[in-house]
Every structure is written in structure tokens, then in C-alpha cells.
Amino acid sequence: MLSRPVPGAGPGHWCCLAAVPSIDYYMSMEDGKRPAIAAFWWINDKGDEVRWSFEELGFLTRKAANVLSDPCGLQRGDRVIVILPRIPEWWILNVACIRTGIVFIPGTSQLTAKDIFYRLQASKAKCIITNDTLAPAVDSVLPDCQFLKTKLIVSEGSRDGWLNFQELLKVAPADHNCVKTKSQDPMLIYFTSGSTGPPKMAEHSHSSYGIGFTVSGRYWLNLTPSDIFWNTSDTGWAKSACSSVFSPWSSGSCVFIHNMPQFEPTTIANTLSRYPITTFCTAPTAYCMLVQHGVTSYKFMSLRHCVTGGEPLNPEVMEQWKTQTGLDIYEGYGQTETVTICANVKGMKIKPGSMGKASPPYDVQVVDDQGDILPRGEEGNIAIRIKPTRPFCLFSRYLDNPEKTASTEHGNFYITGDRGIMDEEGYFWFVGRSDDIINSSGYRIGPFEVESALIQHPAVAESAVVSSPDPIRGE
Hints:
Elements: E1 13-15, H1 23-27, E2 40-44, E3 49-52, H2 54-69, E4 79-82, H3 88-100, E5 103-106, H4 113-123, E6 127-130, H5 135-141, E7 150-153, E8 163-164, H6 165-171, E9 180-182, E10 186-191, E11 201-205, H7 212-218, E12 228-231, H8 238-250, E13 254-259, H9 265-274, E14 279-281, H10 284-293, E15 305-308, H11 315-325, E16 329-335, E17 339-343, E18 354-358, E19 364-367, E20 380-385, E21 397-398, H12 402-407, E22 409-410, E23 413-422, E24 428-433, E25 438-440, E26 443-445, H13 447-455
Parallel strand pairs: 2-13, 4-5, 4-6, 6-7, 7-8, 12-13, 12-14, 14-15, 15-16
Antiparallel strand pairs: 1-9, 2-3, 10-11, 11-21, 16-17, 17-18, 18-24, 19-20, 20-23, 22-23, 23-24, 25-26
């Protein structure tokens, strides 16, 4: 159901529903064959609430696809930058782009005018979609944006020079035929964090994210059509694609969203208590804030599965969460470029501090700088085997940057840029980013290991370790 070939098409042709979460498939099951829960459930702090079934999602995303194709004049392969907070329109537009074959480029709401200009120029995007907050920043750089043709605003009011999404959605026809796409056609472009140089464009295909995150949903997230899944990630990050779009909807689960101005432990705990959320995903830092706040007095009656990723989870935080809630935290590890590389899944023994074992279909190893596999227990580069066959869920390339793409390949492996250790049981242990490793008197020191040791002391609330130049030791 997740990867239906188009009848009569040549080899490698797929309908866009191979990548889009199977909204249309689950829509056909809402006649009693699927649990009577929403497909999308959104709330905010003002008391507003939106609930959509898969049928309503199908209706709205087909209309939105027509908005992009007709008034906006976008075609298959065109690129659109979408900078929106956690509002329902972000989800509609995400799926609408897949229906039309348009390449979706998310951005966080924290981007400045300079950031937006860089992304518009680098991506050659023909359209930008944002709200009232960032529209002035877009207009300020518009004279120098030679590729941008259309501006679409998600707003109750109008703005000169901008098309209004809500107004166009109301009058758009509801009939739309999915554009036929190939599995390797581009679907998403993410700008990486830019920790070493300016942000790079990681291009993903309909296969790598659309199907790759389906695997995560089934195994790491352990989702079923009866689950209500809340992921707190910002819409600009790849984790949102994983846990707020592809993984839950490809499993027939409900996507739950609480649009909060900022992370606040009391609000998080109250939401987990008030709503029947079964699966919860948030960053390790957020779990740290929650256990420091204390959640023993809250009753999470429906919650059964907790996951985390994006940064290493300190074992102390995992232990405190278990003590306060009775629930384990299943850590996963991945990158913008890779989908989920390693994970702790249901039924596995959890080793606190470990990222778990390799996720299917990856062959993950620890290798040296030449790409040779190191013995178990030795520190090296965390790497994914790409030869003789490149995994379908690995990103396609760094767009317009072949040198950077080539630099990540050593021998038969894609080098993640992270350092780690694989133990005798196949569990992976994170040491640090290759460019974060501290070299002191010939010793390679991973900041995370030191941070984990420090945070175990009762007097330490949080810790961060960086190097300091030393004339004798180097660092």
C-alpha cells in the first residue's frame, strides 16, 4: 500500500502516493475498518482546535495542490520554500507538494532576512510561502531575488504583492490527479545546520524520505492505526518530516500537534495528561527540563511509548524519566541526510547511553579514515555501507555541491561525520562530532562523555563541554 507502481508505466515509475503518507489509502478505511480517531489533531494555547479525518485531509490537500498548480503557476520539479510555524496549513502544503511533484523546502520561523535571501538564491526557489511575521523580511530582500516568481501568504488579511492561501483554498477545485513521479525524483530539500561553513542543501527523493521514514514508524516509533503521536519538533527540521508526517500517516496513526510559543514543561506535562497521546517524541534537552520540573504528580494515562533523537540522551535523564513515569525512553540516531541510522526499538534491551543497533535497511559500521572497518570496541567514524548498493533511504546528494557529496564517501561507506564505538553486542555509542573532538596531549576526548559524567553529580543541572587552547596539551 505504501509503494504502488503506476499501471502501465515503465520501470522505476511510481505514483506520488509511494512517497506521500497513504492518506488516500486510509481514507478508504474510515468506514469502520480503522479506529475512530482523527488523522490530524491540532490545538494551541488559545483554545483553538482542529481535527481532520483522512478523508478531510485528502480533500484539503487536493485543493491545495490545485492552488499551487494554478494561481501559483508551479509545475513538477519546481522548488518552493515554506516557512511556517506549527499551523495546520504546513501539513496541507507538505502533502500538496508531493501530489504535484513540487520540491518542498522547509525553513524555521527563526530565519532572518539574510537567511531567507541565502536560501532563495541557493535553491533557486520559484515560490515562497510564509506568514505575516516573516513576509516583511521576504519583501526586504525581494529586489535581489531573480529566481522568485510567486509569494503566497498564510494570513487572515491581504498583503500587497502576495497571493492569499486561505482565500485561494476556499475557491480551489477539489479534484486533482497525482503527478506521476519516479522513486528517485527529488521531493525534499533540507538546509543543514551549517556547523562547518554555510548551510548545505541535502536533497531527498520520494524513496529516501517517503518510504525511509515508513520503516522508522513501524519499528522505532512502534506506531499502529490506533496511536496518537505527538512530536514537538519545529517544522523546519527533518525530525518533523519523520515524526509529524511520514512515519505516523504511513502507519495510519493520528498526528497530534500543540502549537506552543515556546517549550514549557508545565504545558507539556498538562497536555500529556489531558489528551490521549500514546506516543511522545521530544529532544533530550526537553526530557531534561521535564524531569527537572518533576512529572511524578502527573498521570499520563494513555502514554505507552517515548522516543527521542537529535542529540545524545544523558543516561541520568533516562533514569529519572523511568523513575518518575515508569516509562523507558527509546533513543534513535540519524541525520538530515540519512533518516534513522540506529535506534532502540521495542523488545530490545536498552543500554543507557547507547543509541541502539543499526536500523533496517542500513549496514552501519565504525570505520577508520580510509573506510576500513575497525574492531568492536574501537572508536572511529560512524558509517553506512553504500557499495555495492546505495540504501534507498539515504539522501541523493548535496545539491550543486559535488565536492561535498564526494567528500562523504570513503571506500564502500558514507561517513556521517560522527565518531562512535560499536560494542560486542552491536550497540552504538556516540562520542562526538568529528569536528567537535577535543585533542589533548594526544588523547581524543568526546565532549558528550564528559558532559554525561558531569550531569550525574547532584549539584549539576546542565553541562556543556568545549575545548580551550593550551600551549602544552594543545587543547
